[in-house]
Design a protein that fits this description.
By secondary structure, the chain is of the alpha/beta class. It is built from ten helices and twelve strands. The protein folds into two domains: 127 residues, ATPase, nucleotide binding domain (Nucleotidyltransferase, domain 5, 2-Layer Sandwich); 161 residues, ATPase, nucleotide binding domain (Nucleotidyltransferase, domain 5, 2-Layer Sandwich). It is globular.
Length: 316
């Protein structure tokens, strides 16, 4: 691993985080701004510029050799553009070019946020030491990324591994993506909560109707809440098994808010996976919770920047 420093940006619908990161994945300097997600594209870019501006005041900035960006998607790494669903002001926004200009011409690596978290889990987390892995983020949406033959596999545009839009129910509900019965439509946090509410689950006195509240109810023995997690687990299992059958992964890492539900999710997920992953070469597949925390996006963006440097270690 390089001793070089890199800069990292983690861009989402809520916050824009930035950091200077060393070759061991340690965050040395950080900056953050709220994402002005409802504003026009230039206003959002100004928030990015403020984050970078704050980083450049550090004496360590001068040692940063590249910038990695993990952005909410879709992204197009080949074009250097981003069109995050939750930032309407950015459509085919030339983020790579704009960041390069602000940073004085440093090389910029762009990947989707699911791929960034995959990079972090492979470098520092639950997929460490695994050459073939799928990492998933199950929260408001369902994203993911792949590690194949020991290397991050972002694909030509940086979106490979987007498991949320594998269809697992041919006659299922229409998904906003245009397909039907997608994993995301069954397994994302809001869809777990929606299914529970539609089937008679009711929030407690605090009115919390999120998937976290459904998970708490399931732990307390509510059968409708438990059934909503079992349905989500089945969809995830079908998507994971399809991926494993296609590219021969041996571990699937599940993170994001829904991934924090613990046994309420993982017990039915492992049971369903045994039903779906039946071929000899996918039977040894394990499913584990993610280990990297809230800094995963930054650490993964840094990993992508380090991997892009000349002579970078193959394991990044």
């Amino acid at each position: 691993m390089h001793t070089d420093l890199v800069a990292a940006l983690d861009i989402g619908g809520t916050k824009i985080a930035g950091a200077v990161v060393d070759g061991h994945g340690t965050i040395l300097v950080r900056a953050q701004r709220p994402t002005p997600a409802r504003e026009d594209g230039d206003t959002v870019m100004r928030a990015v510029e403020e984050v970078l501006g704050e980083l450049t005041t550090s004496p360590l900035w001068g040692r940063a050799r590249a910038i990695g960006i993990g952005s909410a998607g879709p992204v197009d790494a080949s074009a250097g553009t981003v069109s995050p669903v939750n930032v309407p002001g950015w459509r085919d926004f030339p983020l790579v070019e704009r960041v390069r200009a602000v940073s004085g011409g440093l090389p910029v690596e762009l990947i989707g946020d699911g791929v960034a978290i995959t990079a972090a889990e492979h470098w520092q987390g639950a997929a460490r030491g695994h050459d073939n892995a799928l990492c998933m983020v199950v929260s408001t949406g369902v994203g993911g990324g792949l590690v194949l033959n020991g290397r991050l596999h972002p694909g030509p545009t940086g979106n490979a591994g987007h498991i949320g839009h594998i269809s697992v129910d041919l006659d299922g509900d229409p998904c906003p993506c245009g397909s039907r019965g997608c994993v995301e439509r069954l397994a994302s946090g809001p869809n777990i909560a929606r299914h529970a509410l539609e089937n008679g689950w009711r929030p407690g006195p605090d009115g919390d109707a999120t998937a976290a509240a459904v998970a708490a109810a399931a732990r307390a023995g509510d059968p409708v809440a438990a059934a909503s997690f079992e349905r989500a687990a089945q969809a995830l299992a079908a998507g994971i098994a399809a991926t494993a059958t296609l590219v021969e992964i041996d571990i699937a890492v599940v993170g994001g808010g829904v991934g924090k539900a613990g046994d309420v999710l993982f017990t039915p997920l492992r049971k369903a996976l045994a039903d779906y992953a039946t071929l000899s070469f996918v039977r040894r597949l394990t499913v584990v919770p993610a280990r990297t925390g809230t800094d995963a996006g930054l650490v993964g963006a840094a990993a992508a920047a380090l991997a892009g440097l000349p002579g970078a270690a193959a394991g990044v």
